[in-house]
Each structure stands twice: as structure tokens, then as C-alpha cells.
Amino acid sequence: MSTEPFSLAKPLARLIEELHRLPGVGPKTAQRLTYYIVRMPSEDARALAEAIIAVKEKTTTCSACFNVTDGDPCAICVDSRREGSQICVVEDPLDVLALERSGAYKGLYHVLHGAISPVNGIGPDRLKIKELVRRLEGASVEEVVLATNPTLEGEATAMYIYRLLQPLRVKVTRLARGLPVGSDLEYTDEITLTRALEGRQEFHG
């Protein structure tokens, strides 16, 4: 009887390892997903693989708002029905999806791609903050809505941006405090987001 330790087939081990790299995917979940894919019809597995490749090869970031898009500028930026005098500043593209689901906001966006976090080595220069300031200079924007997450990092980012925008004499507002402290916009329900937008207040540092 063989005493050799059991080893996974190399393709299985590789897929488990790659799935485990994804945020929120632990080793057990990676294993379950791998064996689910093994049982999938070949055409479904191929469609999944093609969708992943297409996301990498056929998407880019909008040169105006930095949201993820398949066309530059993005559909929101070129939509003449949007209110061009408002720009909502969010941390991530998922936050744009959350706000759009609420249906309460009709302006434009600016995606920072993160929040200031000295602990994680993320300073202002790693975010799209300078691009926001350049976008506002000379533009006819009347209000900037700071919709960073109600976390320590989100609040620090909002404060930093507020101070940068002071010389531009643009109205700066913050989402109302109906949002749960420490939560992310992407996990907030549409009703809460709508109330937070409607109840936004002028930001004061």
C-alpha cells in the first residue's frame, strides 16, 4: 500500500491558488469554486474564461471620471441628460453602481480608486485627487459631493479634498449621516443612499 501523500492534479491546484488570490475568497471557497467549474459544461467554462479575458482586454478607465468603462469617455460622462454642474466623488467604481441603483443622483462622478490610508502606504498621490482638481479648474461645476465611505480613511480623504478645493470657491457637500459608520457605499441599500443624497449638507472642515 502506497504511503505517498495525496496531491492534487496540477490544473486543480493552480486554479485553487488563483481563485484564493481574489478578495473575500478563502481556501475552502476556492476549492468549492474549482470543483464547481470542473463539473460545469465545457461551453459554460469557456464562456467564463472568455468573460474574464474580455474584462482585462476590452475595458479601460474613463479619461474624465476614471470609472471603469468599455468606451472613453464613459456613457455617464457623455450623457447630455446628466447634471454637469455636480460631481460626486467616490472611492471605487462599485460605489458608482450603488449610487446609480438608488436613482437619486443625476450628476457626474469622479472615481478616486481608493482612500488615503497611511497604514497601508496609500497617500494622496496614489489616488485621482490631482485629476479632480484639474477637472474643476475652469469648469462650470457648482457642487462637489464627497461620497467617500464613512470610515476613518474615507473621512480623512474627504477632509483632504475639502481643503484642496477651498481656493476654487466651489460648494462642497457631504452625504448625510444616515449611512452606517464604518460601512461601504457598495453594501448600502438604495433607500438609505437616496436619503443620504437628499439630506447631504455643506461640508465644513
Structure description:
There is one protein chain. This protein is α/β, with parallel strands linked by helices and 205 residues long. It has helices at residues 10-20, 27-39, 42-58, 93-102, 129-136, 152-165, 190-198; strands at 60-61, 68-69, 83-90, 107-111, 143-146, 171-174, 201-202. The strands form two sheets. The chain has a five-stranded mixed β-sheet with strand order 4-3-5-6-7. Helix 1 packs across helix 2 and helix 4 packs across helix 7. The protein is elongated. The termini are far apart.
Number of helices: 7
**What is the CATH domain class of the largest domain?**
Alpha Beta
Query: What percentage of the residues does DSSP assign to strands (E)?
Result: 5-15%
Mean pLDDT: 89
Q: Predict the CATH topology of the largest domain.
A: Dna Topoisomerase Vi A Subunit, Chain: A, domain 2
Total number of domains: 2
Number of strands: 7
The oligomeric status of these chains comes to single chain
Structural class: alpha/beta
Helix content: 40-55%
| Cα-to-Cα separation, first versus last residue | 73 Å
How are the strands of the biggest sheet laid out side by side? Answer: 4-3-5-6-7
Shape descriptor reads elongated
What is the alpha-carbon Rg in Å?
A: 21 Å
Q: SSE order, as H and E? A: HHHEEEHEHEHEHE
